[in-house]
Amino acid sequence: MNKSRDIWEFRTAAGHSAGTDLIGFHVEAVDGPVGKVDKLSEAVGEQYLVVDTGPWIFGRRVLLPAGTVTRIEIAEQKVYVDRSRDEIKNSPDLGDDGPDDGHDARGRFGPYYDAFYGGRIF
Question: CB atoms < 10 A from the CB of 88, how many?
């Protein structure tokens, strides 16, 4: 039986180690590049990446829960996520300030990402 995990935590298999600086790493969706990591939250139960999409979607910043990360390649400086470019493009607007804290992130972005996993990943 698989133990379910919250989408707001890194998957064990992703290879994330607390304290690893991912800022500036390239983010790869399942169908191509989407941008670079601009911010990282490692708070327990409130882990996420803020990704600057650059000119791809007009400089928009998006929030991706840490549970969307499938693997991290330190040598390549790449973070791979289980989202398509369209899913990321259609995600809720982060705005200039970003989330105030993890609870804000969960409240504002949780419903969009919960729709993919029913609130959980396996």
Answer: 24
Q: Strand runs (DSSP E) across the chain, as ranges?
A: 5-6, 26-29, 32-43, 46-52, 61-65, 69-73, 78-81, 120-121
**Can you tell me which residue has the tokens 């990446």?**
49
pLDDT in tens, 73-111: 999 999 999 999 989 888 887 876 666 555 577 777 878
pLDDT per residue as tens digits for the range 23-72? 999 999 999 999 999 999 998 888 999 999 887 667 788 999 999 999 99
The C-alpha atoms of residue 76 and residue 110 are separated, in whole angstroms, by 29
Q: What own/partner pairs with CB < 8 Å and gap ≥ 24 does 114-120 have?
A: 114/7, 116/87, 117/7, 117/67, 119/6, 119/7, 120/4, 120/5, 120/6, 120/7
What pTM does this model have? 0.84
Structure tokens at 83: 């989202």
